[in-house]
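Case study 2.
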Amino acid sequence: MGRSVRPIINGIAVTLLVGLTLVASDAPLPGVAGMAPRAQALVTIFLGIVIEALPFLLAGVLVSSAIHLFVSTETIQRLSPQASWRAALLGALLGLAFPVCECGSIPTARRLLDRGAPMPLGIAFVLAAPVVNPIVIVSTWVAFSGDPLIVGGRIALTIIIATLVAVVVGRAGTACRSPVHALVHHHEHDHAHDAVSGWGARVRAVLDHSADEVFEMGRYLIIGAMIAATLQVTIPRATLLAIGSDAFGGTFTLMVLAMVLSICSTVDAFVALSFAGSFSSGAILAFLVFGPMIDIKALLMLTTTFNRAAIARMALGAALLSAAAGITISLLVGGPS
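Prediction:
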């Protein structure tokens, strides 16, 4: 993305955040009162998405900055498997070490790729880390009272789908990799930090670098949250739920809902629990697997790291495999969970 476009995106993001926060605070803004309650609902949903995601975005950029400043390219390349499927499998399991959601996994993956990690590793990490991490595993266990089909199925399907998609998309190689290096405006700043020594200087360097990353990723989070909130307000949820009465309709309905809602993976299990009486276990698993991989805000944030062709392949692969798994499980297990 060119430098001439960045100020426009930054301005839109800041305007959205400040304006909607003022609306939420009941400030006397002209024209807003007549839009309630739909406008208030939009603001509430928007701020809910941002507030849920922001702590994990911060965690992700801190991890990203730490990798950039303390882990050398040689170390990453030495530790990364050469075989595509091994690199993808490692990436799918790295969330156990980096407990971040989709907002945090993207800047972390970007830095791993920039440090020389194989493309399949970065793609699998982006797709799997929001689910395959201790926080989300525990929250899913608590929400579904340890149901082995939901808890174990969510983890297993996420690892399998992320690994398969990463191996296939990763073969595109340079077509996916180039956007990682497109952030040339950071490079001089980054190289200056590579030479820092002493813990005090390193901590300051991590914080400085993290601030840059927050502005880079945060604007996409804000715009993506606004799009997701708008869709939630304009598309009645009852319309989506009404077509979810069978294995096929239920699976696709909850996948669309997961994409539109853009809920943080640390809490989406509790939302999925509310569908347990109406949808099959397969449909719920599709919601829990596909949503953290591909939702509206994540699609926008992925543009900071991957090109459009790679993102399209990732989204299509994740959607097809999640749908196939959800429909199959629904047909095998039967009715509402």
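The chain has a mean pLDDT of 77.
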